[in-house]
Amino acid sequence: QRLAFDDFIFFFSSRRRHTRCSGVSWARRCVQETGINAEYMGKIKIMSHKSTLRVLSQVLVGTMGSFIFGYGMGVFNTVQDIVAKQLDWPEDKKNFNVGLVTSTVALGAAFGAYLGGIVVSKFGRRLTMIMADVITIVAVFPTLVSNLGSILVGRILLGFAIGINSSVVPLYIREVSPNALSGTSGSCHQLLISLGILLSLVLGYGLPTKDDADFGTSNWWKIMFAIPLIPSAIRILGLMFIFTNDTPQYLSQIGKIGEAEAALSDIYHYEDCLLYTSDAADDLLCVDLGGRRIIKKKKT
């Protein structure tokens, strides 16, 4: 069976040096010949991803956070006039209040982005995204109350979740995507941000105009504020019941090599090519053809 060049990931052991993979011919030569010093070489696994659809589905679940990012940043621009009307903001205070509500999202996002890097290293990519979704769900409810202070609380919490998503989602996408799909899956992050912004504008067509009788009573803006509940619920369910493993990189970093291999087996199928085994080998590495390290384990 002829395997695609970009689909290879090589597991190999090396005590003093790392052999650089250079494609299918290199792997075939390793299998057929004995030109690699047995003292340094351990075992190679040639791996190709199982299903493009599955990988992109996993990426799509992760990028629900990107959608919330775009939607949350854009939605208040659409509803600001009707919110100002229903909350009876004086004309001389309207611009200040609009700026305040808008800036609280950016403020929360700044803190979320900073803390997100710490949280994602401590708790992992999957759990961090679930935490961001829980914060998003909590943040929605204060924004449904017709009160400036309550809206500010909800918006700053939403911004905090957005900041966490901005840190963890690109990392998650990178670590679950095979090299052959890295370009396609990487673009999904920006695509979902753009779709979130687009939806926040399109839903504005449901708002009454200033000349409509229900301009001061319509609750459509509250429905628009509640939309992030949907992608948050989708991602929580997807991560809890379908994509239940964290990324191989994180699991290997915390020493859970067995779980890291299980996470790899969710994405890849492989055939073992046992070349040599050597007690001298003390490293287990998994790298792709681009030189990206997937997992590393130091033998004890």
Describe this structure in words.
The protein is mainly α and 300 residues long. It has eleven helices and five strands; from the N terminus they run E-H-E-H-H-H-H-H-H-H-H-H-H-E-E-E. It has helices at 24-32, 52-62, 64-86, 91-123, 125-143, 148-176, 182-202, 220-226, 229-241, 248-253, 257-267; strands spanning 9-12, 44-49, 268-273, 283-288, 293-298. The protein has a three-stranded antiparallel β-sheet. It has a two-stranded antiparallel sheet with strand order 2-3. Helix 3 runs antiparallel to helix 9, helix 4 (91-123) runs antiparallel to helix 5 (125-143) and helix 5 (125-143) packs antiparallel against helix 9.
Give a summary of the structure in a few sentences.
By secondary structure, the protein is mainly α.
